[in-house]
Design a protein that fits this description.
The structure holds two protein chains of two kinds. Chain A is of the alpha/beta class. Chain A has two domains: about 290 residues, Rossmann fold; about 100 residues, Rna Polymerase Sigma Factor, Chain: A. Chain A is about 40% helix and about 15% strand. Chain A is built from 13 helices and twelve strands. The longest helix of chain A is centred in the C-terminal third of the chain and has 18 residues. By secondary structure, chain B is an alpha/beta fold. Chain B has one domain: Rossmann fold (3-Layer(aba) Sandwich), CATH 3.40.50. Classes of the chains: A alpha/beta, B alpha/beta. At the A-B interface, helix 12, strand 12 and helix 13 of A face helix 3 and strand 3 of B.
């Protein structure tokens, strides 16, 4: 399939500003033709989605790091969070920023790409090359927009499983992910227990809480309230609901931090001024910071994709698929789990992780649980947290030993 | 097995050796209050057990997981009820019973979860403690019990005799019992309970439902 139709439409549309049209064209292009590896499937290999319909043709964009060993036993799948991407350990070509988890994944890192073959795929519903609302709908030649069926965390995982089938990887040595990535890890362990040797769900939950659904709803309403959203058809109109998406990001960003961390970083400090202006400028540093976060986000993320992926998280309730019993989701699980949470994370608080730990204990699964002391809130899982690194390294080394993979540091 | 390198492979605590001696090779083991994982590590290396741990302190848990052990953060008083019946062949409570809020309930949980239960604890009835209390009129502070009464985590001290009565109350069968001297060596003779209660610094019991 070709992305030319949608692309020219975006360019020909009635653009409000050249910048916005430019962003739209880029976004449309990268959704169909990512700079990363991509695997395309025809209608004959359609994905059956949880919501009912079949999706096909479809495609999945991914990056790999390291080398798959001869017996294909050293593959590690990294699952990204809400606004993440496949560039886990290499620079994002669009933002130029280093891989989003390059402190955890890379040569000599806890997920050591000198020893493990790491795969990270853009999620279904995403906007960096895996089929999502910004991708071209092959049936119409237009962007999918809201015509794309809703996707779930399980759909994302099923899509990854198909990718692994085609990469010739039967069993994953480990699946690692934080936040929404952690949801995928739990789903992997429940859906494909025999394909997951070790699982590391970080700062996550087995279901999305009411409070978290509420925050997501605020974000989606902000996007949809932007007149430029145009019922999801902004590509065709050559506009972009940047303001709505920026507000959504600003609200969400607060939930990723913590009061102490914000206070330490910004306090009530004023931004480039001696006194308040008695107006609605960004007087405070925190305001300026949030505005910056919002503005940079809209350049790299598709607004419709934000709706789809937040919805996927909202719908996640692993126990519901197992008669309300989370323990049943993991019954007879051969997987060894290492669950991690952060003390100041109020979006995915420790108690959510403990629910999973209790369920795993009740199903007599092999589980480790570490709560990392940090005041940096939910975001901590993406930051320099030595305790997390030590834990991941130690856990993976122990697991590699049990699996008979040469552990990192023990030589080739 | 190309072994995971662990920090300490040499000397093991005397009571750890003793406890390890009671565990059958390859067994499923839960070590409650596993600290930095030294006993679990010993059991996995020398007895090839399928070992799990529970530890209250975050530092302890993190140290365990970082050395490749399967350990969860948890509280013996609260979190044992999450485990199913007969989940383990051996459940070990090493030097922790006296620090729990409800030792009887904990012991009952242990007997529910494990086919065998190994409990080790400091014997408060040892002659040294009796003499200290008798002559100084103060709560004993010794090399083995270094805390003052106001900052000790050990809130439910018992003597060997007390523990034996608790076992009878909860219908636990005592399969083996040992008293350890000040050097952590087993008292090398069988003696009536009252003698062990006087000379044992520590006690190790192997119980079964």
């Amino acid at each position: 399939m070709s992305g030319n139709n949608g692309r020219s439409e975006a360019l020909d549309g009635t653009a409000q500003t050249t910048t916005e049209a430019g962003v739209s064209a880029d976004a449309a292009n990268r959704a169909d033709h990512p700079s990363s590896k991509v695997m395309r499937f025809g209608a004959d290999a359609a994905l059956t989605l949880d919501s009912g319909p079949k999706l096909g043709p479809w495609q999945i964009a991914y990056e790999t790091y390291g080398t798959l060993n001869a017996d294909r036993s050293n593959a590690v799948l990294v699952c990204h969070a809400l606004t993440g991407d496949q560039y886990v350990a290499s620079a994002n070509p669009y933002t130029g920023k280093p891989g989003w988890w390059s402190m955890l994944v890379g040569p000599g890192r806890p997920v050591d790409t000198d020893h493990y073959f790491v795969i990270c795929a853009n999620v279904l519903g995403g906007c960096l090359g895996t089929t999502g609302p910004a991708s071209t709908n092959p049936a119409t030649g237009q962007r999918w927009g809201l015509d794309l069926p809703l996707v779930t965390i399980r759909d994302m995982v099923n899509a990854q499983a198909v990718l692994l089938d085609h990469l010739g990887i039967e069993t994953l040595f480990a699946v690692v992910g934080g936040s929404m990535g952690g949801m995928q890890v739990l789903q992997w362990a429940a859906s494909y227990p025999e394909r997951v040797f070790a699982a590391i769900p970080i700062a996550t939950a087995a279901r999305h809480s009411s409070q978290n659904i509420a925050f997501h709803e605020v974000g989606r309403q902000a996007v949809m309230a932007d007149p430029n959203w145009c019922g999801g058809r902004y590509f065709e109109r050559g506009v972009r609901p940047s303001k709505g998406l920026a507000v959504a990001r600003m609200a969400a960003h607060i939930t990723y931090l913590s009061d102490p961390a914000l206070h330490r970083k910004f306090g009530r400090n004023l931004q480039d001024r001696e006194t308040v202006t008695f107006g609605f400028d960004a007087d405070f540093q925190i305001e300026s910071y949030l505005r910056h976060q919002g503005m940079t986000f809209v350049d790299r993320f598709d607004p419709n994709s934000y709706l789809y992926v937040t919805r996927a998280m909202d719908y996640f309730d692993l126990a519901a698929d197992y008669d309300g019993s989370l323990a049943r989701a993991f019954l007879h699980s051969p997987t060894r789990f290492c669950i991690m949470s952060f003390t100041s994370d109020w979006l995915f608080p420790t108690e959510e992780s403990k629910v999973v730990v209790r369920a795993l204990n009740a199903s007599a699964a092999n589980v480790s649980f570490v709560e990392v002391e940090s005041d940096r809130g939910h975001d901590a899982f993406l930051l320099d947290e030595p305790e997390m690194f030590r834990t991941v390294r130690g856990f993976l080394t122990g697991a590699a030993n049990a699996r008979g993979i040469t552990p990192p540091g023990a030589g080739a | 097995m190309s072994g995971v390198q662990t920090p300490e492979t040499g000397a093991s605590r005397g009571d750890h050796r003793l406890v390890a001696g009671l565990v059958t090779p390859g067994a499923r083991v839960l070590d409650i209050g596993c600290g930095d994982g030294a006993l679990l590590d010993l059991l996995m290396r020398e007895k090839q057990v399928d070992g799990r741990g529970m530890e209250l302190s975050q530092a302890g848990v993190n140290a365990c997981v970082a050395r490749g052990l399967s350990v969860v953060q948890g509280d013996a008083d609260r979190d044992l009820e999450d485990y199913p019946d007969d989940a383990f062949d051996f459940v070990i409570l090493s030097q922790t019973l006296q620090a729990t809020r409800a030792p009887r309930k904990v012991l009952e949980q242990l007997l529910r979860i494990g086919e065998h239960v190994i409990v080790s604890f400091p014997n408060f009835g040892v002659w040294r403690n009796r003499l200290q209390l008798l002559f100084t009129g103060s709560m004993p502070v010794t090399e083995h019990l270094p805390y003052s009464w106001y900052d000790t985590p050990n809130i439910h001290f018992c003597t060997i005799r007390d523990f034996v009565s608790l076992c009878r109350e909860v219908d636990a069968r005592m399969e083996k019992a040992m008293a350890l001297n000040a050097r952590g060596e087993p008292v090398p003779f069988t003696a009536p309970w009252w003698v062990w209660n006087l000379i044992g610094e520590q006690a190790v019991f192997l119980l079964r439902r």
